Amino acid sequence: MLIHPQTCILLCIHTIRVVGIISASKRREIVRSFNPHRNASSSITPLQVGNGDFAFGADITGLQTFSRFSIQSSWAWHNFSLPTVENQTSPSDFLGVDWWTYDRLVNYNMPNPAESDISNWLVQNPQRLNMANTGFHFYEYGITEENILNKSQCLDLWEGTIISSFNYKESDVSVQVSCHPDQPVVGIAIKTDLVLSSKLGISLEFPNSDTHKFDAPYVGVWNDTSHSTVTMRIAGNTATFHHKLDNNFNQVGMTWNTDIDMSLNRLNGGSDTLHIVADFSPPNTPRVIPDYNAIVEEYRRWWENYWTSGAFIDLSAARNSSANELQRRIILSQYLVAVNEASYNPPQGLVNNGWYGKFHVSPAVNWSTTALSGQSLETLAAAGKHTEFTPIAYSPSSNQILGHF
């Protein structure tokens, strides 16, 4: 039996019963009932904070201490140097490959064995960059996750905040991580008496890029510094790190509370609470790094608006045994979409890299939240991306499909 696609859509819509307005308190109760809780790091899946254009992945410590999860954005990319083989030193040297299609030769943008160097360069570049790794430094060699005790972690989906705690050297450590809703900025709060005794530090590392098509769960090369240099400038309670990787640049700006003395070697505290704000804005971007408390409050308001705007699916009254699992997947998917796929480019995700981290234009709208899809569509229209890509797409496509009908 053949069913028209429009009929299928109508049938699906008919099965949904609208039962009325779901209050903000009820939505909060449902969302928070699916908060992820952990007592150890996942080997493949970080908990994340982010805003769709930028995301920060965390292990059980709330940072990236034992698992080198990614800090990724829609703008941070890396290109390897072009090949030096004669007639393969520029993208314009690429000729593609001719294949017989419907009794004629058609040129396709596929790797050409006769020009493998420039073919491979075009496939592999650019790669989405893992901008940095930040974690705790324990001033002891060989500390592993097993050496810290009473580990506990919760992702508060309603407020978009990762709350972590653990015990080290008989001292409790609590960590809270939030993200600015509109900027590539992370706010980190650390509370422990280890800051007072200078027994806990913060590390910041910058990985090199690689040529892997798929990088998961970690992105980048950590044992090679041959292509990169890092320079640092500290002034008062502000530090700026410049990372040069081949001919690409990125930078991190950091601030912390003024009663903490952060040096290259030690963290000396006049307080047991450390507030760090890390700004991953593109180079040459005017920087006004927001206050930690302002980040937390703006992020909380943004998430509350996200969860209370538009329709909401409540399956709590459903009798089907699979309803709770379906509800869980709906809630977690909505969170992950907001963090990873509300970018100013079509989505690829900001957990790790697939296809070198490159996005695909066709699935630009694959969510149902009006605010997020509207943001992406408006940006695509403003940037003229679809208009820009259309002639490029039509040029080879018309030649390739001619004769199929």
UniProtKB/TrEMBL annotation:
It comes from Penicillium hetheringtonii. One of its GO terms (biological process) is carbohydrate metabolic process. This is Uncharacterized protein. InterPro entries: 6-hairpin_glycosidase_sf (IPR008928).
